[in-house]
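INFO  loader      accepted 1 record
INFO  loader      residues=91
INFO  predictor   begin
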Amino acid sequence: MKRVVKLFPCSSLGPSYLKELKGPLNELNILAVGGITKENAPSYLQAGASSVGIGGNLVALNEIQQGNYSAITTYAEQLMAAVHAVNFQTF
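INFO  predictor   done
INFO  writer      dumping tokens
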């Protein structure tokens, strides 16, 4: 079983903090959570996060209230494309 350490809130710390943390603790599997978006998710993965968690930025309450489920689907697809574009071979 792989153990994962949740790093929250990432928006307050940033990818550079995660990269510095991974320096001496490279064996940690870090889940970056809190303020993760499609724009910054790749930066956290490139900094050494093994995964990212997205909540409110993925499922916007106003989109749900308006029944705009296609916007949520589009955002999720864009997020997945951004994550899949990261070259994990660089770790």
